[in-house]
């Protein structure tokens, strides 16, 4: 190792290692466990020649062990599984985490890959880890690692334009309109193929299958609002982008709005209370509607389709 101390290397690499583990596990708590164990192993190791890649591969292997463990198995999970929603932290050691290029929309998509393919993709894309080292992490031959990585990339490429979590300006606009009773501010932005997922973990009443299509999603939202009301809405900072926090009569819901091309393509409704860890909710002031979303709303109001 160079002249840097192990503590200096760790502080520099910790945010990226957390990103690796969070993309693999979709859980803040599990990511923290993997990163903490990686530190213990790193601190106990002697003369690590390439600490950056060493830490990345060890963290990924630990994250893989976590998602493979029986207690983390999603085989018996009731209903859709969605990423945890958590505040990035309040301490100075967590300040770098808030700047990570994490995105809950992408984390959700990654969960569609098998755990092994997820690890291969994250290490290859984030750290440029080569096939031989990927094979060692996943317990594969280099040829098998290359084949599985190629398959993972093809699977993700099937989505023409990967969605991103809506930014604070878009969510603030929605909050302002919804607080005025204008539900169409949300439903008019839905793409034709929009999908809504609800994660309750079987702990509360919820749709146990995804809802497909703008019409069905609109009716589902209208039904929820009709039954429980809109409640108190606020836009909160969270890992992976801002989140819409809805305080309804029955419970708190954290909604991640996925967007692509100015349209809402997905709504992640997290209502498993064990997976909502917003320690400090910061309401953001409404901002202007981003140009792409504004243009889409105007086209829809005129009954025109987007250009092909």
UniProtKB/TrEMBL annotation:
Domain called RNA polymerase sigma factor 70 region 4 type: residue spans: 105-156
Region (Disordered): 283-308
Pfam families membership: Sigma70_r2, Sigma70_r4_2
Keyword Transcription regulation among record annotations: yes
Molecular function as annotated in GO: DNA binding; sigma factor activity
One GO term of the biological process aspect: DNA-templated transcription initiation
Name assigned to this protein: Sigma-70 region 2
Superkingdom, natural source: Bacteria
Membrane-spanning intervals of the chain: none
Biased composition (Basic residues): 298-308
Protein's organism: Corynebacterium lipophiloflavum (strain ATCC 700352 / DSM 44291 / CCUG 37336 / JCM 10383 / DMMZ 1944)
Gene3D superfamilies: 1.10.1740.10, Winged helix-like DNA-binding domain superfamily/Winged helix DNA-binding domain
Assigned keywords, A-Z: DNA-binding, Sigma factor, Transcription, Transcription regulation
């Amino acid at each position: 190792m160079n002249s840097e101390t192990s503590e200096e290397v760790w502080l520099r690499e910790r945010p990226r290692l957390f990103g690796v583990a969070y993309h693999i596990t979709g859980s803040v708590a599990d990511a923290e466990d993997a990163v903490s164990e990686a530190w213990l192993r790193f601190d106990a190791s002697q003369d690590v020649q390439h600490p950056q890649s060493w830490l990345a591969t060890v963290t990924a292997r630990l994250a893989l062990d976590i998602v493979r463990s029986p207690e983390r198995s999603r085989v018996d999970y009731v209903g859709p599984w969605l990423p945890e929603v958590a505040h990035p932290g309040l301490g100075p050691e967590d300040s770098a985490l808030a700047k990570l290029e994490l995105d809950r929309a992408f984390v959700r998509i990654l969960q569609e890959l098998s755990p092994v393919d997820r690890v291969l993709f994250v290490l290859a894309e984030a750290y440029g880890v080569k096939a031989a080292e990927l094979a060692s992490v996943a317990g594969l031959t280099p040829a098998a690692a290359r084949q599985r990585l190629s398959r993972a990339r093809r699977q993700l490429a099937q989505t023409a334009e990967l969605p991103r979590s809506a930014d604070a300006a878009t969510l603030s606009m929605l909050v302002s309109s919804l607080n005025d009773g204008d539900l169409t501010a949300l439903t008019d932005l839905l793409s034709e193929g929009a999908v809504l997922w609800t994660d309750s973990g079987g702990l509360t009443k919820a749709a146990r299958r995804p809802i497909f299509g703008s019409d069905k999603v609109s009716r589902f939202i209208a039904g929820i609002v009709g039954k429980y009301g809109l409640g108190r809405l606020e836009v909160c900072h969270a890992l992976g982008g801002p989140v819409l926090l809805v305080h309804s009569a029955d419970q708190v819901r954290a909604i991640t709005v996925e967007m692509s091309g100015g349209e809402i393509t997905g709504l992640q409704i997290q209502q498993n209370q064990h997976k909502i860890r917003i320690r400090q909710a910061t309401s953001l002031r409404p901002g202007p509607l981003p140009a792409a979303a504004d243009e889409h709303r105007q086209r829809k109001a005129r009954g025109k389709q987007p250009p092909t």
